[in-house]
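ugh ok fine here u go
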Amino acid sequence: MHVFVTGATGWIGSAVVDELLGSGHEVTGLARSDAAALALGKKGARVRRGDLDDLAGLRDAALDAQAVVHLANKHDWGNPAESNRAERAAVETLAEALVGTDRPFALAAGLSGLVRGRPATESDVSPEVGPDSHRGGAENLALEYAEKGVRVLSVRFAPSVHGPGDHGFLAAITAAAREHGVSAYPGDGTTAWSAVARADAARLVRLGLEGAPAGTKLHAVAEEAVTAREIAEAVGRTLDVPVVSLAPEKVAEHFGFVGRFFALDMTASSARTRELLGWTPSGPGLVEDIETGAYA
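structure:
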């Protein structure tokens, strides 16, 4: 297949591009900068210059491709409404371009807020609906196109897609430990995250494009639950700093923006995803990646 990928030089997107190219697919990647375009070209991918606000360019790229993987997001923490608006507009544009084609359209989604008190499953419906909701309600919007001749796939990524070079949540947690001289966890440390190695997540995206039916929700989850305390203890061992508990009112001060996520339960099962696609994660676990220096 010829696959158009947004976010093609991002943390997950760059691994997805490698996975697709390595499996014999052709890739066109969206590039906002000269550096991104150069990186894609060196891999053997085609380049489409533009960004999420270039809706005409997104539409044309989707029309030219046989599949679309949408991983880009503005992630503007200072202006979440703008991030949500841009995400909804991009998803609607890409999906409209594919109406009636039966071509696959995979988009990135998250696990936060799906359910409370238990791990989320693939059958759980996102409560985020409408343009004013998180990510602009893009998952539910996209899934509506499964009834319009688009093979829509929602890929719900674990909050930690980990590995050497990760600059996301775990990098911020490690940076806070380095700055404060202690590795901390919120409260009693029992809140937990699901996790998956980056290469395993990329392979799941490819398998979904190649074989998942329309309307499928896929969980990129290898480990169902790694507790905040386990994460903090691994960071503490790696940096050789004490491990401490933080009172709720101290979490934001210590961790910054990532604190509100570290204090949440974001866990999920991937049993149905594994059965559907024969996906068996083989990468290192989160604690292993921390202890072998991925964040040091």
